[in-house]
Amino acid sequence: MESLSQAILPIAGLGTRFLPWTKAVPKEMLPIGTQPIIALLVDECIEVGIRDICFVISKGKEVIPQYFDRDIALEEELARRGKSHLLTELQRYDATRFHVVYQEQQLGDGHAILQAEQWVESDELAVLFGDDLFIGAESGLKQLRKGHEGAGGGAMAVIAVENIPRELTAKYGVIDVASEHPSVPRLKKVKGLVEKPKPEAAPSTLGIVGRYLIPRSTFAALPKVKSSTKDGEIRLIDALIMQLKDIDIYGYECEGKRLDTGTPEGYRNALIACGEQAFHEQG
User: Fold this and answer.
1) Does residue 262 carry a pLDDT above 60?
2) Cβ-count burial of 39 within 10 angstroms (0-12 exposed, 13-18 middle, 19+ buried)?
3) What is the C-alpha to C-alpha distance for residues 257 and 96, in angstroms, rounded to an integer?
4) The whole model's pTM is what?
């Protein structure tokens, strides 16, 4: 199996900010153009050659994997009507393998990832969180892969980061930069990570934004971090802090515009930004 051939999409959250809509429809099924948000994340994986994807969901979100299931009867009807363009669109995920695991309790992002441990086969994993979308010349995941390859590949972690206003650091995980990579622009060697620091204590203004490449060894670290948190959550950032002594960790300051679809206001801004991008591409 290729080193980067699998991706985990933790999407078990309840989407409480979007209630009552999310009582019936998962937030990840909200549309951006003619596609739901979740399809944009899957497309991001496919673009870099990942065709093995695991959804981490909660009960009631089964419509998400169902969206990617084949509908033979519909395909036959479209073929009968000569709707070849729609048929091609429906078949674009046929070569992608989808797997589903459940997160029964909301015990942190690391806990969500840990539910997929038995499914993991590749040495490096992509992790994409659904609240963040990237628009621009290259997707966030494609930029991370470029940073991973530029740093030499192998057992390392590469994290997407964004330069954020200092007054917002308490909302993000923040990296402490050791050095800039000598030959890969925007790639920064990490010497520390801090979860949601106060602005005056933040080691930088580079906040972590929803995309990770992690080594398989991170799954061994995740169960060990639970006792270090007051709320009992298992957090991915704590596992990476634990691994700093064993592996190289880099932050990649992604180019393009990041869209936060985790709030109604952010989702509205994403609709506007994606609509503008589509208009300029067509023009």
Assistant:
1) yes
2) buried
3) 27
4) 0.92
